[in-house]
Amino acid sequence: MSDDKRLDNALSKGAPSGVSVLGQPVNRVDGRLKVTGRAKYSAEFQLPNMTYAVLLQSTITKGRILEVDISAAEKEPGVIKIITYKNAPKLNETKSGWENGMSLLQDDKVLYNRQNIGVIVAETFEAARDAAPLVVFKYAPEKFDVVMRNEPELLVTPAPQFGRLPDNKRGDIDQGLAQAAVKISETYTTPTENHNPMEPHATTANWNGDRLVVYDSSQGIFGERQKLATIFGMPVENVRVISHFIGGGFGCKGSVWSHVPLCAMAAREVGRPVRLVLSRANNYGPVGFRPATIQNVTIGSDKNGKFTVIRHSGINQSAHVDDFTEPTGSTTNFLYSCANVETTQRLLRLDNGKPTFMRAPGESTGSFALESAVDELAYKLNIDPIELRMKNYAEKDESRNVPYSSKALAECYKQGAERFGWSRRNQAPRSMRDGNVLIGWGMASATYPVHRMQSSARATILENGSALIQAGSQDIGTGTYTVMTQIASNALSLPMKRVQFESGDTKLPATAVSGGSTTVSSTGSAIKLACDDVLDKLTDLCLKDSGSPLYGLLKEKVVCRDGGLCSVEDENKKESFAQILSRSKLKSIEGFAKNDPEEESKNYSMHSFGAHFAEVRIDPELGSIRVSRFVTAIGAGQIINAKTARSQLNGGVIAGIGMVLLEETLMDKEHGRVLNADLGEYHVPVHADIPVIDAFFVNEVDHIINPVGAKGIGEISIVGVAAAVANAVYHATGVRVRDLPITLDKVLT
Ligand code: MOS
Question: Considering the entire predicted model, what is its pTM?
Answer without folding.
Answer: 0.96
